[in-house]
Amino acid sequence: LLSFTIFLILFSFCDNNLKDEETRKKEPGVRSGETKQNLITGKAGEVLSPPNKETALPKGSPKNPKSLPLTMKEAVVLALRNNLELMGFRYDPLIAQEDIIRAESVFDPVTVLRFDVNESNINNTIARTKSDNLSADAEINKKFYTGGTYGVGFDTSRNRVSGGTLGTQLANPVNPITRSDLFLNFTQPLLLGFGRDVNRAQIEISINLQKIAALGLNSQIRDLIAGVETSYLDLLQALRTFEVSKKSLGVAEDLLAQNKIRVRVGTMAPIEVLQAEAGKAAREEAVIIAQSNIETFEELLKRQIFPLEESDLWSLNIEPSDKPIVQKVQPDLDAALESTLATDPQYQQAKLNVSNRDINLKVARNLTLPTLNLQGNVRTAGIRGEVMDDFDPLFRGDSSAWQVGLNFSYPLGNRDAKSQVRQGEMQLEKSKLSVKQAEYTLTVQVRDLIRQVNTNLERVRTTGISSRLAEENLAAERKKLEVGLSTSFQVLQFEERLTIARNAENLAIIDYNKSIINLERVTGQILEKFNITTKY
C-alpha cells in the first residue's frame, strides 16, 4: 500500500509535466523568418517592446536626415516594428495561452494539510476528567483525464486522559493512545463524466482558441503589409502624376514664351498669347493639386510606419527608392485556390470553430448519460501508546478496511441535457455552413483577383501604346504651329491628351502592381515574400 501511494504521488506530478509538454507542443506563436531585422518573434519581451526612434528608421540612415530614401521592403519592416495596432494583436495569442494553462490547472494535484489541538475538562460530583487531543493529517487529491478523482493521505492523532474515576481509567488502559491511518480513496465515473474527450474538452477548446488568435495575428500582418505596399504605390503614383504635371506646365510655359516672341515679330495674333496664358494657369493648378496629393499619401504612409510619439520623424520627406515595374505574372487558378484554402486565416478560423462545436456536442451528448460512479477506499491503521510505536502495525496492515460501491442517479426526462444536444447539433451544422460559405467567398475572390491581374496587365500594354502615340501627335502638332498651320489652343489640346495618356499609363502600372499585392495577400504569398511565418 505504501508503494502504491508513492507511485500515485509520483504519477500525479509526471502526468502534470506530460500535460505541460503536450500543451507546449500545441502552443501557437509567431516566429521570425530569416530576415536580418528579426521582424516577428515568439518572445514576449521582443514582440511587445515599444517602438523608439532607433527602431523607427532603417539601418544606415543618417542621424538627422531631412529626407528619408525608403524602399518598399524597408517600409514594410518599419511598419512591422512600429505599428501599434499590430502590437496589440500580438498580445492575443499570449493571452489565449493563459486560458490553456487555466484549463489544465483543473488536473493539478491538490495538497490538504490539517492540524488540530483541543482540550476538554469534565467536572462532576465524583471526579474531574481532563482530555487532551492532538491530530494532524495530510492528503493529496488529483483529477485525471478519465474523469476520476483519487486521493491518498495519512492522518495521526494522540489522546491523553488524566484524572477521572476508576472506571474511566479502566476504559483507557493505554494512556496516552496514538492512532495513525494510511488511506486511499477514489471516485471514477463510468458513464456521465467518463473519458478523455469529455474531461479534456475545455483544454482542446482553449488550444483551438489560441490558434484562432494566432490566425487573427496572421491576418493582421497580411493586411498591414498589403496596406503599406499599397500606400507606397499610391505615393509613387502621386509623385509620377506630379512629374507629368510639371512636364505639362513646362510645355505650356515654353509655348507661352514662343508665342510672345512671335507676337512681337508680327507672325502671330495676340489672342494666341492669351490662350497660352490660360493653358499655363490651368496646368499650374494641376501641379498644386498633385503636390497636395503627394503630401496626403506621404502622411498616410507615415501613419503606418512611424511611431506616434516620435514627432520629429513626421517632418521627414519620404523619397521612395523603388520604381514600379511591370513584371509579367500568369497566376494559376488551381494553385492559387489551393494556397488560399490552406493558409487563409478566416477560413482556418471557421474550421477551428467547427472543431470546437464538435467538442461541445460530445460533451452535451455525455450529459445525457446517467451518473454511475465507482467509489471505493482502502484504509490501514496502527494503534500504540507512544507516537512512533504505531507505525509498525500500520505498515504491516494488521488493522485494515476497504470498501467498494456504485452510485447511480438519473434525472427523469433529462430535458436540459437533451436540449443542449439538439442545440449543439444545430450549432455544428451552422458552423459547417460557415466553412462552405468561406470557401465559396474565397473562390470567387481569387477568381476576381486573377482576372484583375490579367486585365491590368492588358491596360499597361494599351495605355503604353496610347501614351506613345499621344507624344508623337503632340510633336507633329507643334511643328504645324511653327509653320502657321495650327493654333496654340490645338497644341494645348494635344498636350492635354498626352498628359491624360501618361497618367493613365502610370495608373495602369500602379493598379497592376496593386492587383498582384492583393492576390499575394489572399493566397498567403505576401508572407513568404518577406520570409515571415506564423505558427498555429
From TrEMBL:
<dbReference type="InterPro" id="IPR003423">
    <property type="entry name" value="OMP_efflux"/>
</dbReference>
<keyword id="KW-0812">Transmembrane</keyword>
<dbReference type="Pfam" id="PF02321">
    <property type="entry name" value="OEP"/>
</dbReference>
<comment type="similarity">
    <text>Belongs to the outer membrane factor (OMF) (TC 1.B.17) family.</text>
</comment>
<keyword id="KW-1134">Transmembrane beta strand</keyword>
<keyword id="KW-0998">Cell outer membrane</keyword>
<dbReference type="InterPro" id="IPR051906">
    <property type="entry name" value="TolC-like"/>
</dbReference>
<feature type="region of interest" description="Disordered">
    <location>
        <begin position="23"/>
        <end position="68"/>
    </location>
</feature>
<protein>
    <submittedName>
        <fullName>TolC family protein</fullName>
    </submittedName>
</protein>
<dbReference type="GO" id="GO:0015562">
    <property type="term" value="F:efflux transmembrane transporter activity"/>
</dbReference>
<keyword id="KW-0472">Membrane</keyword>
<keyword id="KW-0813">Transport</keyword>
<dbReference type="GO" id="GO:0015288">
    <property type="term" value="F:porin activity"/>
</dbReference>
<dbReference type="GO" id="GO:1990281">
    <property type="term" value="C:efflux pump complex"/>
</dbReference>
<dbReference type="GO" id="GO:0009279">
    <property type="term" value="C:cell outer membrane"/>
</dbReference>
